[in-house]
């Protein structure tokens, strides 16, 4: 399948690396994700990745106990770097050259995020994993993914989840919820879709960056998305 996108930003929740209980890092899961990325890269696509941290730390747990929001968010940023290193290791063991860049400097384990350096790595065929969110509290990793996608001139933001598309209602609550294959940015904002936060959608809307929401674990889903085949939900102008 020929790819229609030259460069993508793949946003993946931390749960993609988790074991059966939904927490921690399962090396088997990390290798499966690495294999999916390798197959997309083999199509000639440049790939940057932003990972969440829900498998290690959920800031809401701290907030519910009175923790400062900034502290909870900084802990989440550090957790994304742990996930980034785990995915880097899995990719490298699959023969994929990878670089981790972080918004918070920690030069002993990763490069600091520098936009032009990230682009150069992509041009050289390396997968770039972007950790530590935006480096600022009060911003989600969804927003970090949208921001980085704009900065590296990605052609599309792919939000890989556990559901196969956006629905009008939560399909786990209402099995008859209507599946939506295409939405405008405004429609997505009005629906308050749960799979992507409103700041990320607004940022993509203002910069005309399409978003594809799909099920990461559906066989061939990423390859179909980059080949331009209809899959999941497309959010665009």
Give the overall pLDDT as a whole number. Answer: 95
Reported for the largest beta sheet, the result is: 9 strands, mixed
Give the count of helical stretches.
Answer: 8
Hey, roughly how much beta strand do the residues contain? 15-25%
Number of strands: 11
Counting structural domains, the number is 1
Between the first and last Cα atoms, what is the distance in angstroms? 26 Å
Instruction: Name the helix and strand elements from N-terminus to C-terminus, one letter apiece.
Output: EHEHHEEHEHEEEEHHEHE
What's the Cα radius of gyration?
A: 17 Å
What general form does the structure show? globular
In CATH, the architecture is 3-Layer(aba) Sandwich
Uncertain segments are none
Helix fraction by DSSP (H/I, runs of at least 4): 25-40%
Query: What is the oligomeric state here?
Result: single chain
**SSE class:** alpha/beta
């Amino acid at each position: 399948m020929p790819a229609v996108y030259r460069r993508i930003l793949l946003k993946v929740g931390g749960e993609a690396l988790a074991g059966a209980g939904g927490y921690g890092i399962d090396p088997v899961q990390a290798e499966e994700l690495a294999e999916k990325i390798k197959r997309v890269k083999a199509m000639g696509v440049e790939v940057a990745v932003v990972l969440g941290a829900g498998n290690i730390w959920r800031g809401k747990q701290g907030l519910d106990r009175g923790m400062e929001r900034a502290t909870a968010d900084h802990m989440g940023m550090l957790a994304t770097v742990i996930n980034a290193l785990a995915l880097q290791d899995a990719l490298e063991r699959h023969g994929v050259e990878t670089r981790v860049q972080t918004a918070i400097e920690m030069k002993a384990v990763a490069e600091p995020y520098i936009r032009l350096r990230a682009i150069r790595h992509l041009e050289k065929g390396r997968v770039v994993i972007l950790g530590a969110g935006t480096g600022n509290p009060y911003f989600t990793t969804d927003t970090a993914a949208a921001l980085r996608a704009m900065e590296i001139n990605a052609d599309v933001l792919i939000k890989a989840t556990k559901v196969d598309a956006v629905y009008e209602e939560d399909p786990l609550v209402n099995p008859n919820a209507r599946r939506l294959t295409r939405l405008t940015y405004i429609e997505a904002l009005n629906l308050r879709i749960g799979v992507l936060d409103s700041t990320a959608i607004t940022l993509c809307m203002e910069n005309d960056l399409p978003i594809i929401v799909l099920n990461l674990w559906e066989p061939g889903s990423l390859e179909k998305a980059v080949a331009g085949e209809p899959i999941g939900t497309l959010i665009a102008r």
